[in-house]
Amino acid sequence: MQDVIIVGGGAAGLSAALLLGRSRRSVTIIDDGRPRNAPADGVHGFLTRDGVAPLELTRLGRADLAPYDVRIEDGIVAGAERTDNGFRVVLEDGTAFKARRVLVTTGLTDVLPDIPGLAERWGKDLAHCPYCHGWEIRDRAIGVIGNGSFAAHQALLFRQWSDNITLFLNDAPQTADVELVQLAARGIRVVPGTVRRVVSTDEAVSGVELDDGTTHAIQALTTQPRAVARAAFLTGLGLVPTTTPFGETIESDDVGLTAVPGVWAAGNVKDMKATVLAAAQGGAAAAVAINMDLMVEEVAEAVAAHSA
Q1: Which of 189, 199, 197, 140 is nearest to 169 (CA)?
Q2: What CATH number is given to the structural domain containing 202?
Q3: Same domain, yes or no: 117 and 85
Q4: What are the C-alpha distances in Å from 227 to residues 10, 100, 247, 271?
Q5: 95-138 residue pLDDT tens
Q6: Is residue 229 within 8 Å of residue 258, measured between CB atoms?
Q7: Distances from the Cα of 269 to the Cαs of 41, 185, 249, in angstroms?
Q8: Do 94 and 128 belong together in one domain?
Q9: Beta strand 189-191 with 165-168: parallel, antiparallel or unpaired?
Q10: What is the 3-state secondary structure (H, E, C) of the chain?
Q11: Is there a contact between 5 and 28 (Cβ–Cβ < 8 Å)?
């Protein structure tokens, strides 16, 4: 029986484990080794670690945990259930772990538009977050592939990094008149029609081909993927993702407590907008809350025993 099981070993999970370990809590991290940002060349905006490779950041984070009562188990969680004194988490291979509290930091799966050639550019010259990767594609001819109501806003946002922006409406809803005025004022080209495929070599993207056969030259891409919480294993606890216009997340309060007592969430699984640095902070906040929750329980048990 551990104090806390953390499902997910990215920035949020490792940050939480660090604070819990330093609080003299026993922790087990269960991680499947498939971080959301694995295709990216580097993590950006993380103070003192700007540009570090995602797996290197994970390695450094794991190394920080060595002095503490934290163990890391490789595996995929298949289900979770409540027990008399906590929770039981079961892996796909049948291995089970028990803990008094559970923290979910599994992140998201990015579901891209079904456009041939698009997925191959993910993590290279296809970016979804300008704050994470806009600098790397600055001053290029950037194509924005519409994939929902966020398309015009996304084009206006990426205009900060390049003055050569083309919005391909694709599956985006009809652009509002006020948005058309804003796009025109910022010199952003708007191209109607459906995107047929993305043209590229192994080295770089070179164009966007539409259904009418025309090809528009571009040097980088962005689109809005649908973000889906990696949390199917929580259904046994009665905890299901909440659907939003941009995807699915696990609802929780400011410090990560979900609707299920004893279960917290941190990082992108609860906040799809969180950068890696923000995810780490969310893990730390959840760790403090979990430690306080355990402390309150322990004080109550001690008082009851003392009074008996």
Answers
A1: 189
A2: 3.50.50.60
A3: no
A4: 17, 30, 5, 10
A5: 999 999 999 999 999 999 999 999 999 989 999 899 999 999 99
A6: no
A7: 22, 36, 5
A8: no
A9: parallel
A10: CEEEEEECCCHHHHHHHHHHHHCCCCEEEEECCCCCCCCCCCECCCCCCCCECHHHHHHHHHHHCCCCCEEEEECCEEEEEEECCEEEEEECCCCEEEEEEEEECCCEEEECCCCCCCHHHECCCEECCHHHHCHHHCCCCEEEECCCCCHHHHHHHHCCCCCCEEEECCCCCCCCHHHHHHHHHCCCEEECCCEEEEEECCCCEEEEEECCCCEEECCEEEECCEEEECCHHHHHHCCCCEEECCEEECCCCCCCECCCCCEEECHHHCCCCCCHHHHHHHHHHHHHHHHHHHHHHHHHHHHHHHHC
A11: yes
Domain residue limits at 260: 2-110+226-307
Nearest residue to 210 via CA among 226, 224, 190, 225: 190
Both 33 and 89 in one domain: the answer is: yes
CA atoms within 13 A on the CB side of 104: 36
What tokens appear for 116 in the block? Answer: 């041939």
pTM of the model: 0.93
- Supply the mean pLDDT for the chain: 95
User: 308 pLDDT band (50/70/90 cuts)?
Assistant: confident
Which residues make Cβ contacts (< 8 Å) with residue 66, sequence separation at least 6?
A: none
What is each CA distance from 166 to 11, 144, 207, in whole angstroms? Answer: 34, 6, 11
Two tokens, residue 99:
């803990």
Crossing angle of helices 11-22/276-307, nearest 10°? 30
Question: Which residue is listed with tokens 């803990």?
Answer: 99
What CA–CA distance (Å, rounded) separates 177 from 174? 9
Same domain, 22 and 101: yes
Judgement on whether residues 152 and 102 belong to the same structural domain of the protein: no
Both 133 and 100 in one domain: the answer is no
The number of angstroms, rounded, from the C-alpha of 241 to the middle of its chain's C-alpha atoms is: 14
